[in-house]
Amino acid sequence: MKADIKTIDAGKAGSVDLPDHIFGLEPRADIIHRVIQWQLNKRQQGTHQAKSRGEINRTTKKLGNQKGGGGARHGSRKAGIFVGGGKAFGPRFRSHETALNKKVRALGLRHALSAKVKASDLIILDKAELDKAKTKAVKEAFAKLGLVNALIIDGAAVNEGFAKAARGVPNIDVLPIQGINVYDILRRKSLVLTKAAVEALEARFK
Questions:
Q1: How far apart are CA 176 and CA 41, in angstroms?
Q2: What are phi and psi of 117, to 5 degrees?
Q3: Count H helices, E strands: the chain?
Q4: Would you state the torsion angle of the CA atoms of residues 24, 101, 204, 109, taken in this order, to the nearest 10 degrees?
Q5: What is the per-residue pLDDT across 136-194, written as a single tens digit (0 to 9) for each?
Q6: 200 by DSSP, 3-state: which?
């Protein structure tokens, strides 16, 4: 399929052929959901942990007689029923990461890209650069392109000045092609790919 290429000033810079096996799929919500769930699970730190009764430093002296006290037969202050006792079935330090095949991850990325094309939320730029790398200039350029909430993907290296200037604009993310992922694509309203990013994606999914 053909797509128009725009300049950073919203001018025309020709057109590009987008491969159908990357940008022309019928988006499947189940595959996209699986990939996003895998990403979010992997992101979780899993460092939450409560002390069990075996990790509490309290007396283990029997509290009273086994019989005749009129209460329960406790043998330790570490029991979870007491204030300051161990937590029964509390959270433990662990990894939340789940397994997902590489082929499914790659397929999820292609479906996410196709979803942006289908929703007409994909913009192709010739390059993500500005002569004056200032936040004010970047805001003006984004206003011309109609970008309010967007993810911008460049080639192997992002223009440092442009990335720093865009950092001051809310709801705008700038990433190199190595950082492209399903969650960030769908988290933002618009997806902006440079020509270098499109070429890198073509090479990746050859």
A1: 23
A2: -65, -45
A3: 7, 6
A4: 40
A5: 999 999 999 999 999 999 999 899 999 999 998 999 999 999 999 999 999 999 999 99
A6: helix
